[in-house]
Write a structure and sequence with these properties.
83 residues, mainly alpha, 3 strands
């Protein structure tokens, strides 16, 4: 699964708190071995290898997309064990 902010437009910014929450969530996914160790956690580009299924990859991608636009709730639902 991959996502980035490159196509969001020149005026789009991601708050530091959001970047931190996304990094913490990706770290949680790595630590639980839900994704591979080579995960890349931004701040512009995000990459998760080894996601178990397409359905889970889509769930994580949608949650990450929402987070990058300021809505952290889907990310919290997708990875409830994240800080």
């Amino acid at each position: 699964m991959k996502a980035d902010t490159l196509t969001a437009g020149a005026g789009h910014t991601v708050a530091d708190a959001v970047n931190e929450a996304v990094r913490d969530t990706i770290t949680c996914l790595v630590n639980s071995r839900e994704v591979d160790l080579d995960a890349y956690a931004g701040p512009v580009y995000f990459l998760l290898h080894g996601v178990e299924s397409e359905e889970r990859a889509r769930e994580l991608a949608a949650a990450l997309h929402a987070a990058l636009y300021g809505d952290l709730e889907p990310l919290s639902r997708a990875v409830p064990s994240a800080p």
